[in-house]
Design goal:
- With 346 residues, the protein is mostly helical.
- Helix content is 58%, strand content 0%.
- α3 runs parallel beside α14, α7 packs parallel to α12 and α10 crosses α12.
- The radius of gyration is 18 Å and the shape is globular.
């Protein structure tokens, strides 16, 4: 049963905003071990994002994923031609431009016209090298064997595709544009499918996670097993009454499967909208890819609960909040058939 249209629009905005909040919370500590985080931020670790709350390349690329997908959607509406992977590839190449020059060129439009996106936030070399290629790679013809987490962290917009099957396929193919290792692109598909089931179809969390595991098992048992462990550890957490979430048992989050498993585990433990802040703190305070794991956690919770769950004081300091809300809402409008400003994506 699909959600009410305006509910999906709200969840689209919240999905992108929640991910950006997690990204900004984790950005200052993404390369630190847990002992170093405690040394710099106290025994409980990071509790609040800095002000301003600056995002990393993960959120930048999520925006360019959304922009490319919406360009494909509008083009399909206007001409009948539907090439979302090609459009997203071109969108990622536009992001690459923002990493190479200081600001917009005269006449630049869309995201390329927004000077705030011309900021280098430690972009991954895997992405930079992949996007410098002449032709886009595919899961069937990869350019590398990387399963790093920068593939999965940008595929949430694919969750607003028309069907679950399309969401999974596009998530895989968007991630594979830079990450050719099986775990690198399958985790992207798994994440997009999870977002679709939660935000668009209104599935209960545990049911959605089980459906994702079943689908992923056909393509990559490793990713499916990582997600299954996330579920088992969450059940153990509830049964034993642990005080804190031990995400380190699922890895460091530097790979796509590990980052997604940590996020899923954290959300299963802190599933209520009122626990958004607790979930992000749990997802960020560990040794490893803190920005990636917290961003995925925020994406999922936003997709589940909408903007009402997002802490207003954190949003007040968030970079690009207006752009994130606009593109996220347009993703929601596209999948439920509501009108939006199509000219933004032509």
């Amino acid at each position: 049963m699909a959600r009410e249209p305006m509910s999906v629009v709200d969840r689209g905005a919240a999905c992108l905003l929640g991910g950006a909040l997690g990204d900004a919370l984790g950005a200052p500590v993404q390369y630190l071990g847990w002992a170093d985080i405690q040394r710099d931020h106290g025994p409980e670790g990071v509790l609040e994002p800095p002000r301003p709350a600056l995002v990393t390349d993960d959120t930048q690329l999520t925006l360019f994923t959304a922009d490319g997908y919406l360009r494909a959607w509008v083009r399909g509406r206007n001409t009948g031609e539907w090439e979302p992977v090609e459009e997203v590839w071109h969108s990622y190449r536009r992001w690459l431009v923002t990493q190479q020059i200081a600001g917009p060129e005269e006449g630049a439009t869309g995201l390329l016209g927004n000077e705030r996106l011309y900021a280098s936030r430690s972009p991954g070399l895997t992405c930079l090298r992949a996007l410098a290629a002449d032709e886009p790679p595919t899961p069937e013809a990869p350019h590398n064997e990387s399963s790093g987490c920068n593939g999965v962290t940008r595929t949430a917009p694919a969750g607003f595709a028309p069907t679950a099957d399309i969401a999974y396929d596009l998530g895989c193919r968007f991630a594979a544009l830079t990450h050719g290792g099986t775990g690198g692109w399958v985790s992207g598909g798994a994440f997009a499918l999870l977002i679709h089931l939660l935000a668009v179809r209104g599935r209960p969390l545990r049911e959605a996670v089980d459906q994702v595991i079943g689908r992923v098992l056909r393509d990559d048992p490793y990713t499916a097993n990582a997600l299954n462990r996330a579920v088992l550890f969450a059940e153990e957490h509830r049964a034993m009454g642990f005080d804190s979430v031990r995400v380190d048992r699922l890895g460091s989050g530097w790979t796509g499967p590990e980052a997604l498993a940590i996020a899923v585990h954290t959300v299963l433990v802190h599933a209520k909208g009122s626990e958004f802040v607790d979930a992000l703190r749990a997802a960020v305070n560990h040794s490893g890819g803190s920005d990636a794991t917290a961003a995925l956690t925020g994406n999922i919770l936003g997709a589940m609960h909408g903007t009402a769950a997002l802490p207003r004081d954190w949003l007040a300091g968030l970079e690009l909040v207006d752009v994130l809300a606009e593109l996220g809402a347009d993703l929601g409008r596209s999948v439920v058939g509501l009108d939006f400003d199509y000219a933004r994506y032509e």
